[in-house]
Amino acid sequence: MRLAKYLAHAGVASRRAAETLVGEGRVRVAGEVVRDPARDVDERSAVEVDGRPVAGVERRVVYAVNKPLGVLSTASDPHGRPTVLGLLEAEGRRLYPVGRLDADSSGLILLTNDGELAHRLTHPSFHVAKTYRVRVAGAPVGERALRALRAGVELEDGRSSPAQVRRLGPDGLELTIHEGRNRQVRRMCEAVGHRVLELQRVAIGPLALGGLPAGAHRRLSDAEVQSLRGTSAAAL
């Protein structure tokens, strides 16, 4: 197995982050620093990260979490602020968030030790859909704004891809996008004249937030995980 993939499957980090660890010289195989993420390894290869042995491939799990407002979607915070990892017991597993939600946004986020799945769900090349519900200022939202969002809008980092949009009352919208730029939904709405007041992610691919309470989590079934894998594979 490729070294970066091995690290991801062992729950050390996502595949992209594992490639960075290798490139920084923080990974040793049989006592030797290795900088090639494609190096073939297995459980007998004595892989270490920052001097600590990697125990090997652990059982992969995926949790759905309803992130509340004010909670960071990072694995840790140097200032001691609450993070999504504090919302569940990891049972010894090294979990990390899939994608990001701003502290002032809420809703569905995934935690996993499956680096390959995390890569498929977040890398732009896989075009996995994410659905958000927002409440905006400047209501009512007119047809001109809806048409612009559906066509794609100009942002400072380039034109957005077209979004699927439907109106949820005079000040509410549901948007589905296939990109993952920083604060993208907020910036798209601002580009058509509507500042976002509330934002909640309600779906990632086929997985819906449903009735999961704020701050709660649940482990995904094998069928749900396979559905997520199928969505990312179909997007290729």
List the helices and strands and how they pair.
Layout: H1 3-9, H2 15-23, E1 27-29, E2 32-33, E3 47-49, E4 52-53, E5 62-67, E6 96-98, E7 106-112, H3 115-122, E8 130-136, H4 143-151, E9 154-155, E10 158-159, E11 164-167, E12 172-177, H5 184-191, E13 196-204, E14 207-208, E15 217-219, H6 222-234
Parallel strand pairs: 7-13
Antiparallel strand pairs: 1-2, 1-3, 3-4, 5-7, 5-15, 6-7, 8-12, 8-13, 9-10, 11-12, 13-14
Helix pairs in contact: 1-2
Write a brief caption for the model:
The chain has 236 residues and is α+β, with helices and mostly antiparallel strands.
The figure for the number of domains is 3
Which whole number gives the mean pLDDT? Answer: 90
- Intertermini distance: 22 Å
Count of DSSP H/I helices: 6
CATH class of the largest domain: Alpha Beta
Q: Provide the low-confidence segments as ranges.
A: none
Number of strands: 15
Task: Explain what the structure shows.
There is one protein chain. This protein is an alpha+beta fold. The protein has 3 domains: 3-53, Roll (Structural Genomics Hypothetical 15.5 Kd Protein In mrcA-pckA Intergenic Region, Chain A); 62-124 and 207-234, Alpha-Beta Plaits (2-Layer Sandwich), CATH 3.30.70.580; 129-204, Alpha-L RNA-binding motif (Alpha-Beta Plaits). The protein has helices at residues 3-9, 15-23, 115-122, 143-151, 184-191, 222-234; strands at 27-29, 32-33, 47-49, 52-53, 62-67, 96-98, 106-112, 130-136, 154-155, 158-159, 164-167, 172-177, 196-204, 207-208, 217-219. The strands form 3 sheets. Strands 5, 6, 7, 8, 11, 12, 13, 14 and 15 form a 9-stranded mixed β-sheet that branches. It has a 4-stranded antiparallel β-sheet with strand order 2-1-3-4. Strands 9-10 form a two-stranded antiparallel sheet. Strand 3 and strand 4 (52-53) form a beta hairpin. Helix 1 crosses helix 2 (15-23). The longest helix is centred in the C-terminal third of the chain and has 13 residues, at 222-234. It is elongated and about 65 Å long.
